Amino acid sequence: MKKNLANLTEWLDDRTGCRQLLHEALYERVPGGARWRYVWGSTLVVAFLTQVITGIFLWMAYSPSTHTAWESVYYIQYEMTGGWLLRGIHHYMSSAMVVLLAIHFAQVVWDGAYRAPRELNFVLGLVLMLLVLGLSFTGYLLPWDQKGYWATNVGTELASQAPWAGGAIKKLAVGGPTYGHHTLTRFFALHAGLLPGALVAFLVVHVVLFRRHGITPKQPYRKPEATFWPDQVLQDSVAALGILVAVLGVTIYTGGAELTAPADPANNYDAARPEWYFLFLFQFLKWFPGELEVWGAFVVPGLLVGLLFCMPWIGRSRKGHLCNVLLLAGLLGGAALLTVQAIQADYLAGAADARFSESGLADTPENRAAFKASQNFLQARQAAQHQTQRVIALAQEQGIPPTGALTLVYADPYLQGPRLFQKNCGSCHNYFHPAQPDPHRAFLINPQPTAPNLFGVGTRAWIQGLLDPAQIVGADYFGYVGSPFGPQGPNSEMVDFICEDCFGGELADEDRARIVEAMQKIAIALSAEANLPSQADVDARDEHIIAEGRALLEGGLGELLESGSNCTDCHSFGAQQDIGSPVLDGYMSRQWLIDFIRTPAAERFYGDLNDRMPAFGPHQDERLNQLDDQSLELIVDWLRGDWGGKAVGASHR
Amino acid sequence: MVDTNRPGTAANNVAGGPQCATPADPGRSRRSFVAVLAGSLAVLGPVTAGLVTFFSPLFRRRQSLQVRVALLSQVPDDGLPRAFPVIADRRDAWNHYAAQKIGSVYLIRQPGEQLPVAFTAKCPHAGCALGYSETDQKFTCPCHTSRFNLDGSRTHGDQEVAPRDMDTLPVALRPLDIPGAPQGGRARPRLDRGAASHSEGGGAASHSELPLGGQGTAPVGRWNVRRQQGLSSVATPQVNEVLVTFVDFQTGRQEKIPST
User: Fold this and answer.
1) Domain spans, chain B
2) ipTM beyond 0.85?
3) Which of A9, A348, B6, B233 has a Cα-to-Cα distance from A263 of 20 to 30 A?
4) Rounded average pLDDT over A9-30
5) What is the CATH class of A31-262?
């Protein structure tokens, strides 16, 4: 057996010369013995190998098109066994590679290892560094999520400003005038084909040249000369393993790489930032206002990179070498400073709902603007996280239609409702839980409402508030500024009915309790008219209470009241028809609300008494309406809490 | 096991290798030339085929569409901006998308004015979407914190990160044909702020009907706002749509607006 193996080795060596090759690879001289400071080049190779391996497996599950990129990454991340780990390693190893590159580069410059005869290898190393950064830039877009999409957009927009050929460069990178399928196919071809191919080619030459000139030994030698195998290989392997363990640790600690909501060209992501190691470039641009931009984006970075390429020749003299070291320190220090600055600017406010007055910043317009910008960033991040959780929940529950995950987003009342509400309703109405406002929905709070708070509209609690003398006069119901329905308004009948007819005068506790109980039953019955999905169970359970409530609504209440007044003195309901409006049959049901928002001044609703609410959809022809049918339905479904799937972080009354 | 007699081993190489060629070989340089030429062509052929396809986006022309963005009644003449999505059909390679949001505009109508001004919501710096801050009445960019006044000018002029003021878009009004409505089917005068080259869309009206002394045919430099005297004296049709010629501006530097 042993003899056969020896024969086979012999045969292989004869045909390939592998023994010689292996010998050259493993028995390179290491003057002064193996040292930990020599591991960085090897760890970079192993890190790149990790990227190739994880990348190929990711490739097996990835599909580059605008309908499938996010979707396939979602599937890797949330459905495939171990997918999150695979993607996490790929993601964090790219960060590790950038750190390792910086160390390797700094060490080469520090040790003057670029000096003759190694100039060319230093240049090759710089090319490799640019290739790695290119890989990182192209990889960021591939998940086609909001973060990658908008951050890469900034990158390609900047590219379009390059002198002379900027527009053409952008078009070629993007594969057309705007982002689309071909942006993904091109970026993917670069990321998985051209760039790694070039990287391998350059790496081979880099390593061959490295071997040709040998290691740059660090004096003084501590140990006698050794060979690469086994001592240096041992240290290299341990270091590589250490890096993998660190990457694994970060992956497990963070739960894997982030996947934000699917890229939505129609809804900008205000917190789009490049990967952390590009942040300094992002921040750098802020120093070049107006027409100077080209300097910040191209000229200065271009000159600096050009200077790096000249290092071996600058460093031929002792002074030159010192210059190089200073340049290196300046570059790394400057990049670190700019990175910190960028992070500080974004997190200045501390929290999305922080107040400027409590921030301790001097009250200057600049500080205010910076605080506001930071707050916008934090709010956008928070909103995006919120949206991401929801889309993923929907995808897991319903599956993703062939048209992509954006279809889920656009058809989801939970996600679209707040946006549409803010745009169309929020300038008058409010939407927040009076007791515990949802921080995710802070943008729906109107400090000066001129219409009722619609949080939980149609629910038992909301209607109970409407029937409560203390609450009905508050800003959440009819007590808003300028309300014609308020106690001082010209149309205060409802408020008068609740405050005077029902609860006015000297009421014995017993009578008050009876009226309160009746009001509760009325609220339950009226709320049942809304047919809210969130109350389906309790509505079915409380069938008899609803029947009692209906009887009270239809005239029974008057028997309890001294005034003898009734709901149906004014409103049409149940058996009491053709009395007045708003009609309470189907009150706050889906159709009732849709019809109401279409034409609030219709006879069925507020008629002539309508308070300033515009008719959002009075016409058959959708083009004439302020709100198209789908938007209107989305708002109504959201207001009524009528959305499928899990509500993420929603506190719904 | 090891066959030492096959050709190509070290021993055979000495006799059969290139060392064997005599320097006096007459056709050598010609053959070398053809070898290099043929080999290069064999490689460059497919590279060229690939590059031509790769460069195909450069051969495609950008189109600017005239798009309906709002009803005039949705833009009150209070001098405050309102955001509207620009919705149009979009093609992305092999996919056709009906009614997609391709951008966003801010419309501002000054008191007494008939025509709103349209600003594209794309920052002229790096193309991020500008937001509007009601508290200080400024447009702000979430990326590099450029700020713009209500008239689109940069708050700090050339000290602002953005290289130029906000880009304006040509605006036109078009009466909406409502079947059965009083003005149904009748061509109404259309008011243009912008060049005559943007005359497509709607087709119901043409510039020759403009009662405004041909102001619609005079190009206005960079679409900047120009007070048009007498605009408000023109009879307003009952329902007007606001049309915007949507241009996807390049960021960073000024360029001509391509005609539709």
Assistant:
1) 28-60, 65-122+167-246
2) no
3) A348
4) 89
5) mainly alpha
